[in-house]
Amino acid sequence: MRSATLAQPVFAGIVAGVTGFASSFSLLIAGLHNVGATDDQAASGLLVLCLVPGLLTVAFSTITRLPISLVWSTPGAALILASKGIDDYRSAVSAFLLCGVLIVVTGLWPWLARTVTRIPKPIASAMLAGILFPICLAPVTASVQEPLLALPIVLTWLVLARLAPRWAVPAAVVVTVIVVAFSSSGVDLSAGRILPVLAPVVPGLDPAIIFGIGIPLYLVTMAGQNVPGFAVLRTFGYDHPPARAIFITTGAGAIAAAPFGGISLNLAAITAAMAAGPDAHPDRSKRWVAAATAGGTLALFGLLSGVSTVLVAASPPILITAVAGLALLNALISAVTGALEEPAYRLVAIVTFLVAVSGLSIVGIGSALWALVVGGIVMLWLGWRRRPAAMPPREPTPDDVVSE
Fold first, then answer.
1. Structure confidence at residue 129 (pLDDT)
2. What are the DSSP E strand ranges found in 44-151?
3. 281 near 290, Cβ under 8 Å?
4. Which is nearest to 149 in space by CA: 175, 127, 122, 129?
5. Which of 139-148, 185-194, 288-297 shows the lowest per-residue confidence on average (mean pLDDT)?
6. What does the pLDDT look like over 106-163, one tens digit per residue?
7. Long-range Cβ pairs for the range 190-195 (8 Å, 24+)
8. 315: alpha, beta or left, given left = phi > 0 and alpha = psi -120 to 50?
């Protein structure tokens, strides 16, 4: 391609890569810390989740000539951040491995793919909403507890949500870095701490943590990322994406990344629209360049994993959760809308949501999995009729608030 035609998809890919990283890296680090990871282990997780999906995106898009963007699971990061009372990081790594294995099996076993993607929408959406809700409350809580720190971040996001929605969350992250740098004397940016680091661990064997995190992580990755990701591709005219190859590749990548702190890999959803849509290039056959550039950009951001972790560690935890909450507001809106759009199943959705948001833990298994179980029981008890096929999703626009 001539340089004149190459510039547009390259720029779109850089924007997608920057936006995807900036909107959720703090959520990922906070989630890994929440399940017992040290700073080095969290930095390692961020590094592999930039390198592995980034390089796989470059390879996949180049080989298939399709704009297939792979990223880490943002709903999965929200899930592990919302998990209560877990400090066994080694067993959490085993849960990440289980999730990767299940994704590979999904690619090899079509029945499982059909079953998972047919989890009733009110239950899947309500579970995801229950996971996201406490995190999305954090901007309000932070504004009350730390007004001098949190309000500049929230106001920056609010202004740009009106003027330039695509950049609202990245700008909020930049303001957070500035606020932390000027307010904290504990930020150690010495060379030994900011260099990229790999910190492998031996997986643990706590069954409650493995299944209590691993199965919900798999389900929210499928329902919250892969299903919307395929919908985005089809919306822009890519009617036959290689689903089986995508599942096997992302599952194998997740298995390889898990011992280093990688949670899960999947198709991108909203930021994928930036690479697969007409803004990337009028010619659909050339948009793969945007996806490949986004993957390369994400891989390069792995070099910032150390300094990102240092900055997050130096910040008040509520401040980091607040930034994550701002990034997830759009996802919460989608989840709540999906849960309540069918009047006949609103009671089922609310019950599922309440169990998920409760944070309860029974026999060591967290509320996300119990929400699915209880929601399924209530739906069966009240009677479930399969809904007609949903209308195809609308084409995302640049005015949408981007949150991967």
1. 87
2. 70-72
3. yes
4. 175
5. 185-194
6. 999 888 877 776 778 888 888 888 888 988 898 999 999 989 889 999 999 999 999 9
7. 193/306, 193/307, 193/310, 194/306, 194/307, 194/310, 195/306
8. beta
Over range 178-206, report the average pLDDT: 75
Lookup: tokens for 362: 């029974």
Q: Which of 254, 261, 255, 259 is nearest to 305 (CA)?
A: 261
Q: What is the mean pLDDT of residues 271-278?
A: 79
- Residue ranges of the alpha helices (H) in 165-304? 168-183, 191-194, 207-221, 227-235, 243-257, 270-276, 288-301
Rounded to whole angstroms, how far apart are CA atoms 170 and 18? 8
* % helix, strand, coil for the chain, step of 5: 75, 0, 25
Question: Mean pLDDT throughout 266-292?
Answer: 84
**Segment 231-241 mean pLDDT:** 80
Length of the chain: 404
> Please, is 73 exposed, middle or buried when counting C-beta atoms within 10 Å of its C-beta (0-12, 13-18, 19+)?
buried
Query: What's 102-119 look like in SS3?
Result: HHHHHHHCHHHHHHHHCC
Q: Which residues contact 150 (CB under 8 A, 6 or more apart)?
A: 139, 142, 143, 318, 319, 322
Using an 8 Å Cβ cutoff, are 382 and 149 in contact? no
pTM over 0.70: yes
Q: In which element (H, E) is residue 136 found?
A: helix 121-136
The token duo for 22 is 């900036």
Strands (E), 62-142: 70-72
**Tokens linked to 331:** 């996802």
